[in-house]
Amino acid sequence: MNSKWAKLAAVGVLSLCTAAPALAGSVTQPGETVGLNTGTPLAPGWYAINTVDWGCRNTTPQHTCTGLTIPVVAWSTPWTIFGGRVQLLGAWPAVEVGVQRNPGIDPGTYFNGMYNPLVAGQLAWDLGYGWGFSYLLGAYFDYHSPVAFSDTSLNQRFALSYTANDWAATVNAIWGIHTSSVTDRPQLSPCPAPVSVTTGLPLNGCNPNFINVDLTVGHSFGKWQVAWVGFYSSDLNAPILGYQKQSQFAMGGLLGYDFGPVVLQGWLTSDVYEKNYGGKDVRGWVRVVLPLNVAGAPFGPSAPATMVRGSR
User: Fold this and answer.
1) For FRET with 118, which of 20, 90, 188, 217 sits at 20 to 30 Å CA-CA?
2) Burial class (CB within 10 angstroms; exposed 0-12, middle 13-18, buried 19+) of 102
3) Dihedral sign (CA 162, 14, 288, 260)
4) What is the pTM of this model?
5) Which CATH number covers residue 50?
6) What is the pLDDT along the chain (312 residues), one digit of tens a residue?
7) Which structural domain, as residue segments, surrounds residue 96?
């Protein structure tokens, strides 16, 4: 794989947190880490990344649309533990959620605000021959916002990547565990019952544990990157009696280009299966990756030979 793609695509570690669909689902947005070699260690240094996506779910007779921006800063330290690179990172996204009902008659509902902030640490190992594996442990912290989950949750990620001979393939499994399955604030994830007798709105928040699996198989052609991407997500438990667990699978295509100082990626995904979401989601994504004082980056020192090992 092209050395720039091998190094910069590894910033999948930076893709941390986004909002789930309008009602419950995963705290980590399904599909957010596709297109990135999350199992590959980052070169030591600082990284900045921003992922923006927007899409709608056809929940007939209405549409539920969400837009997100996720600025992230990460530090790949010079230290290793048991041979794994120590990487520290944090993010605090912003989210908008709109429910469009009947234009001209009912304007619908719109919310926006900050999402649950996340702080995480990761160990990433170079296994040789183009293979890499990483383990991430972090937490999304409770935040009072109409577009955030109403508790603190733990987040673990297990990623395996292959980056050699201009090919890149990654499987990233993300496991989320909530500290409170039911809370006194509905926020982004309301329970189906009970509801207020005066407003008819939910009184409690339901926070199901979840699993996401993000998939990427891609090939680089010089500065260009082309990939198939897919993702699966599922609730793992029902916080209350009557809660209907949700799941989905989506896939699409990705195109990326290395501009030198930055790497730009764009992709489009669509659900091919969904359960209890009320409709299928179609979504567009854009990602910008900026390595700062990273060896081999535009603003960093020259890359040592070991940084590109296994890239071809």
Assistant:
1) 217
2) exposed
3) negative
4) 0.86
5) 2.40.128.130
6) 444 444 444 443 334 333 333 345 899 999 999 999 999 999 999 999 999 999 998 877 678 899 999 888 999 999 999 999 999 999 999 999 887 766 565 556 888 999 999 999 999 999 999 999 999 999 999 999 999 999 999 999 999 999 999 999 999 999 999 999 999 888 888 888 787 767 667 888 899 999 999 999 999 999 999 999 999 999 999 999 888 999 999 999 999 999 988 999 999 999 999 999 889 999 999 999 999 877 655 444 433 332 223 344
7) 3-308
